[in-house]
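Model: Ready when you are.
Researcher: Fold this.
Model:
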Amino acid sequence: MALRMISYAGLSYQTLLNGRQISLPLPPVLPVVLYSGPRRWRASRDMAGLLDETPADLRPYQPQMRYLLIHEQTLMSSAGLPGKNLAVLLFRLGRSRDVEQWRCLLHTLIQTVQQEPEHAELNRSLTLWLHCIVRRSAPPAEQLPPVKTLQELDMMITEKPGLWAQQWLKEGRQEGRLKGQAELLLGMIQRRFGPVPDNVTLRIHAAKAQQIKAWSLNFVDAETLEDVLRD
């Protein structure tokens, strides 16, 4: 990821320079990775961690970049964060399957972005991302109009409230069944083998339905936790 980040930054600078949108000196950047996976992030957070052992006299000439990692589970469990924290809002929008809650979060996001006039570019970027989320959830035959701002996106959703509600309802039911299967398997494991390690809990919650079914069958004659989780 560190290598991709340094490539993205270089390409962004080059594109902006070619389009005469910026000039030297170049503005600073803050590379950010929003991670929502269940497993612990293990990739190196800077270029130095990707390079082989470098002689001291060559180190000043090596590429350098570090990115900020924002882990969803850690962030969402932090009770001290304000409700209008931008990262929290983005994670909640990405996870929500309730249409009214989604619109409420969108309104909060609009208010947060509007507070600063220099957030115009951020408004456009967030609009593109959220428009993609809505488009993926809409019926295949539905043609979505292009939107340029969060306000236009809100108007589009208001005019077509049923556009994605049914699809999200279906996905929510599927996710609910899968979560129930995972919790049932974890309960059986705990009853037979004792407390379940955190890494096992994360692994089971991240598994697909077919994998949980296979582990549940393994549980029938398993003598150890390892027997349950064998492939």
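Researcher: Now this one.
Model:
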Amino acid sequence: MKNKSIIGTESVAAAEKTGSKNGCSVKETDGLHVFAKLKFAFAAMCVLCFALPLYAHTPYRIKGEVSVGTDTAFYEYTGIVLTFYNTSRRTVRKFFVVVFLSGSDEMISFSNENRIVFECDENVAPRTAVRTEFGLDDYISEMQDETYHIDFLYVSKIEYDGGGVWEDPYGVHAVRR
């Protein structure tokens, strides 16, 4: 029994010298070192996620304008003119454009809803643009004296030659006005 008490006394004396209450030694700088690593990892993640533009990952660029007047080929009262640029390396076979429109008074003047979907069956080669027009006459419930505005504009689906499909059903990459 004497040996056990001597060993216990020596370990308690050693623990008191290192400042540990349970016999384990801990460096006080380790906590700061881990915290600095976490801060660096968080900063790197923020740079990668937010510094790179989100649109750089989309396979298209799109621009649209509302046109009022008479163009007998596409519409009688008003239409929309879209410019679609294919940024991918594949040929686009078909794409679907979603447009949210409102009048100048921010009121919806359309018969069913504010969301209008257009289907475009144009082949678009890689790194080229196409300009297309769509009539809005079927969607208008009343003709305003002032023009309509595009609130949101995005491509919800792209079908490629060879069967590939890219989708954005919720408008994550929408152009907002």
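Researcher: Key takeaway?
Model: The first helix runs from residue 2 to 18.
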